[in-house]
Amino acid sequence: MSLATRDALEFPDSDRVFLEPHLPAQDTPQIDMPFTTLTFATSLDSSLALSPGARTVLSGPQSKAMTHYLRSRHDGILIGVGTALADDPGLNCRISGVGGYGKDGLDGQPRPVVIDSTARWDFSEDSKLFQLCRQGRGRAPWIITALAEPPAEKKALLERYGGKFISLQMKIAENGKYIIDWKALLVTLRTNGLQSVMIEGGGQVINSLLAPASMSLIDSVIVTIAPTWLGRGGVVVSPDRRFDEGGNPMSAARLKNVKWYPFGEDVVLCGQIKN
Ligand SMILES: NC(=O)C1=CN([C@@H]2O[C@H](COP(=O)(O)OP(=O)(O)OC[C@H]3O[C@@H](n4cnc5c(N)ncnc54)[C@H](O)[C@@H]3O)[C@@H](O)[C@H]2O)C=CC1
Ligand SMILES: Nc1nc(O)c(N)c(N[C@@H]2O[C@H](COP(=O)(O)O)[C@@H](O)[C@H]2O)n1
């Protein structure tokens, strides 16, 4: 076995079948917006991680391979800067047979996209993403920022690896935080060539995307549920509650066309957001 394939993950054809209806069609071009999949791994108490700074393994081996297969089926993979800071993630696809893992080029490798309104991610040549770029096993990130002029040094490093900053106008909330317009972001990603994007997290990204104004932009939801409780204090997926016309609380969002697939010790839930 060659060095290139020794650490590759296997995801058998038999496991791919159930995912197909939930994935972007391979031969249907997306015109204005990319196909958007919301996908993450959660605990039984809806936590993504033990704390905002903690890289936490939830997926078992089979669902981890599934996540990498999903990465191979999307042009882009989007996270918030909180995840970049906490995890120093690779955000590449390690399925056997994609570019860098048994094949030349970068075929099957998604474009990492990081929402970082104020360009606070202090990446360097040592960041995992850039190591993978040097090894021919991943693409350089696009960083979505509210700054019209991102820091020159970071810009130069990014561009050296084929990445870039994308400046996008963002509103500022009362608490001083930038708020992205999800539709504008997705249109921008499509304009930049991405036909499909998987949104992995973390908590702030998912909770804001599941707000009434943006949840309809999600085409597919694929969630891995791991048989563990992380306990209080974790990074929780729990969007703001909604209220009906009478002021009574109602669910924030609900899925339709739901399918559950046991996968190793985990269960994978697929569905679409109910409008
Ligand atoms: N289990 C899983 O599948 C995953 C777990 N995680 C975990 O999640 C944790 C990180 O989550 P969070 O701390 O919530 O950070 P996050 O990854 O959601 O990033 C938060 C930052 O992203 C930007 N951002 C997010 N939403 C925005 C919006 N609507 N408008 C403008 N900017 C926005 C802001 O700069 C914000 O500070 C990490 O511990 C990571 O390991 C992350 C992804 C997947
Ligand atoms: N699917 C899934 N299962 C878990 O248990 C996880 N902790 C995550 N986290 C996400 O994957 C990123 C790490 O990716 P690399 O392995 O470094 O490529 C991490 O940053 C989260 O986005 N996902």
TrEMBL record:
Pathway: Cofactor biosynthesis; riboflavin biosynthesis. The keyword Phosphoprotein does not apply. GO terms for biological process: riboflavin biosynthetic process. It is an enzyme of class 1 (oxidoreductase). Catalyzes an early step in riboflavin biosynthesis, the NADPH-dependent reduction of the ribose side chain of 2,5-diamino-6-ribosylamino-4(3H)-pyrimidinone 5'-phosphate, yielding 2,5-diamino-6-ribitylamino-4(3H)-pyrimidinone 5'-phosphate. GO terms for molecular function: 5-amino-6-(5-phosphoribosylamino)uracil reductase activity. Residues 34-269 form the Bacterial bifunctional deaminase-reductase C-terminal domain. It comes from the Eukaryota. Keywords: NADP, Oxidoreductase, Riboflavin biosynthesis. It catalyses: 2,5-diamino-6-(1-D-ribitylamino)pyrimidin-4(3H)-one 5'-phosphate + NADP(+) = 2,5-diamino-6-(1-D-ribosylamino)pyrimidin-4(3H)-one 5'-phosphate + NADPH + H(+); 2,5-diamino-6-(1-D-ribitylamino)pyrimidin-4(3H)-one 5'-phosphate + NAD(+) = 2,5-diamino-6-(1-D-ribosylamino)pyrimidin-4(3H)-one 5'-phosphate + NADH + H(+). PANTHER family: 2,5-DIAMINO-6-RIBOSYLAMINO-4(3H)-PYRIMIDINONE 5'-PHOSPHATE REDUCTASE, DIHYDROFOLATE REDUCTASE FAMILY PROTEIN (AFU_ORTHOLOGUE AFUA_8G06820). Its EC number is 1.1.1.302. InterPro entries: DHFR-like_dom_sf, RibDG_C, Riboflavin_Biosynth_HTPR. This is 2,5-diamino-6-ribosylamino-4(3H)-pyrimidinone 5'-phosphate reductase. Gene3D superfamilies: Dihydrofolate Reductase, subunit A (3.40.430.10). Belongs to the HTP reductase family.
